[in-house]
Design goal:
79 residues, mainly alpha, elongated, 3 helices, two-stranded antiparallel ribbon, 2 strands
């Protein structure tokens, strides 16, 4: 999301669908010497603590601290 300030009275918010579109709008604003601000990534609806645990778990698995189980092993846990 890139709000482009066209005058002291107007702000336009653009919602690019991908990085290429975002880059094009940014270059257009720079070419036209229009001040703009980047708002960053959309805020996640996930709890940051939960996201941290998942990222930590993925890192642990990459370091060999995880265990793969088969679908049959997983299903046997429910019986």
């Amino acid at each position: 999301m890139y709000p482009l300030i066209l005058s002291s009275m107007e702000t336009i918010t653009i919602h690019p669908k991908n990085k290429e579109q975002a880059s094009l709008f940014e270059q257009l604003a720079k070419t036209l010497k229009v001040p703009f601000e980047k708002s960053g990534k959309e805020k996640s609806s996930y709890n940051p603590e939960f996201v941290s645990k998942i990222e930590r778990s993925r890192q642990n698995f990459k370091e060999g601290k995880g265990k793969k189980i088969t679908l049959e092993e997983l299903n046997s846990l429910w019986k």
